[in-house]
Amino acid sequence: MRPAGAPPGPVHGAWWPRSWDLSGQLHTMLPELWDRLDGIEQVVYNTATWPVAAPRMGVRGRLVRLVPSPTQALDSISLIGAASGRVTTLLVIPVATPREDAEATLAAAAAPTGSGIVSRFFRNCDGVPDHAGGSARARVAEEEHNAGERTGAVRTVAGHAVDVEDCTMLLAMLGLDARDGSRADGFGY
Questions:
Q1: Which residues are bridge partners to 59 per DSSP?
Q2: Its pTM surpasses 0.70
Q3: Interval 126-146 mean pLDDT
C-alpha cells in the first residue's frame, strides 16, 4: 500500500494473491490491513475475475461482506472501511504473474509519488493479463504520463505568474525546470 499521506490516486496499493480462491486469499490479506484501515466492512470485487466467493467471511471476530459488482474494475478490489466508510482500491496482480513482474508492480503501486496508473497498463484491452513486457510498458507509459503532468504544471504556473522571475521561482519551488518542465533534480516524477 502507498504510505499514509501520499498524494491521492485511483489505486492505493496492489495485492498479489497466490490462488483464485478469493475468500481464502482475503483471509490472509485482510488482517494485515485491518488496523491501517480501521477495520473492513466490505470487499467489492468483479465476478468476471472472481466467479465464486462466499457472501461473507469472519475476520478478527467481525463479519466482512464480499460484494460482487460488475462495475468493479476487473483488475482491482475495493475495501470499504468499517469505521470511516473510506474506499481503498487495490490493484489485483493475476495469480500466474511471474515473481519479477509482480514485485515490480507491487513496488510501483506502493510508490508514494506514483500516479496510480499501473492498472491501466497491466492488462490488455480485453482484460487478459499482459505478462510479455507489461512492466516495461507500464514504466514507459508512467514516464509519458508524468511528462504530461509536468508540462501541465508549467503551463498553470506560467498562467498565474506575475513575471518571468516569479514563474521561475514558483517552478523551482515545485522542483521543475522553467526551460522544459523537467524535474530540476534530473529524476523522473
A1: 62
A2: no
A3: 52
- Identity (one letter) of the amino acid at 132? A
Query: Is the CB of residue 105 less than 8 Å from the CB of residue 137?
Result: no
Contacts of 45-49 with CB under 8 Å at 24 or more apart are 45/69, 45/72, 45/77, 45/78, 46/70, 46/71, 46/72, 46/73, 46/74, 46/76, 48/74, 48/127, 49/74, 49/75, 49/92
Phi first, then psi: give them for residue 175, nearest 5 degrees.
80, 20
Task: Give backbone dihedrals phi and psi of 67, rounded to 5 degrees, phi first.
Answer: -110, 110
CB atoms within 10 A of CB 77: 25
- Cα four-point dihedral sign 122, 125, 128, 131: negative
Name residue 123's beta-bridge partners: 129
Question: Do residues 38 and 82 touch, judged by C-beta distance below 8 A?
Answer: yes
Dist. CA 6–CA 27, nearest whole Å = 27
The single residue listed with the C-alpha cell 475476520 is: 59
141 exposure class (CB count in 10 Å sphere: 0-12, 13-18, 19+): middle
**What is the per-residue DSSP string for 93-113?**
PPTT--HHHHHHHHHHHH-TT
What is the C-alpha to C-alpha distance for residues 38 and 43, in angstroms, rounded to an integer? 14
Q: How far is CA 10 from the centre of its chain?
A: 6
User: For the chain, where are the alpha helices, taking DSSP H only?
Assistant: 22-34, 99-110, 118-122, 134-160, 164-173
Average pLDDT of span 9-23: 83
